[in-house]
Design goal:
With about 260 residues, the protein is an alpha/beta fold. It folds into three domains: about 90 residues, Alpha-Beta Complex (Conserved hypothetical protein from pyrococcus furiosus pfu- 392566-001, ParB domain); about 50 residues, no CATH class; about 50 residues, no CATH class. The chain contains 13 helices and seven strands. It is elongated.
């Protein structure tokens, strides 16, 4: 049906916290030219209609000067509305990593579901969902950097190896100031961990000359296990360290190793 814009209200479960004005304006320009090609999905909420999916289209329609928009109204309860909104949004490529992580967490809370169930709902691997959720262990200041794009998800995953929030924040600031790549940050984090463990500075030269194939093995293990992996290689003794978050994350890694 065609619905007046003022009858629509936003979904409180919308995982997108920031909608860029420039992107909304571009969508508004497209709507002026082509109209709204896909109806907004909504549910009844008292005398109004709550947007389930399509909030960007609704906001852009306002900018475009429309008074009415096409809406598909469905009988959806509050929990299913949250699931619809979250599933649609976490699959979007333009959501930042923290917004996706918060969306996964909210979906788990809403459904009372495990990471595996949520992964199936959104069509992702469980390891992918786990890696996003681990970002919520970062201090708020570092999460803000990831949200703004000043740090990538790869940077953020490297920082999670550090022992506390202060160390993560300090290292994040250093990474931004020095414009470190993910690999360079990983090296710096490992150096800091070794120094705190009392291994001294003698380990640094070994790291710079370790075989390339060790780096490749490390990256392959990260992809296979869905968790940070660090290899300390030497001719006489080699250590492989696999980092896990909570008990569920530990059991997931254990099962992957057992099955392998």
């Amino acid at each position: 049906m065609l619905v007046e814009l003022d009858r629509l209200v936003p979904n409180p479960n919308q995982p997108r916290k920031v909608m860029e004005e420039r992107e909304l304006q571009q969508l508004a320009d497209s709507i002026r030219t082509n109209g709204i090609l896909q109806p907004i999905l909504a549910r009844k909420a008292g005398t109004q209609l709550e947007v389930v999916a399509g909030e960007r289209r609704w906001r852009a329609a306002k900018l475009a000067g429309l008074t009415h928009v096409p809406v598909l109204v469905r009988n959806i309860d509050e929990q299913d509305s949250a699931v619809f909104a979250l599933v649609e949004n976490v699959q979007r490529e333009d959501l930042n990593a923290i917004e996706k992580a918060q969306g996964f967490k909210l979906l788990m809370d809403r459904l009372g579901a495990t990471q595996e169930v949520v992964a199936k709902k959104v069509g992702f691997d469980r390891s992918t969902v786990t890696n996003f959720l681990r970002l919520l262990d970062l201090p708020a200041e570092v999460q803000a950097h990831v949200s703004r794009g000043t740090l990538t998800m790869g940077h953020a995953r490297s920082l999670l190896a550090l022992p506390d929030a202060a160390a993560m924040t300090e290292m994040a600031t250093s990474a931004i100031r020095e414009a470190l790549s993910v690999r360079a940050l990983e090296t710096k984090v490992k150096g800091a961990l070794e120094a705190s463990a009392g291994t001294g500075s003698g380990a640094s030269p070994k790291k710079s000359t370790r075989p390339v194939w060790v780096n490749e093995l490390e990256e392959n293990l990260v992809d296979a296990l869905g968790s940070p992996v660090h290899i300390r290689y030497s001719r006489n003794r080699t250590q492989i360290t696999i980092e896990c978050g909570n008990r569920e994350d530990f059991e997931r890694v254990y099962q992957r190793l057992k099955n392998a």
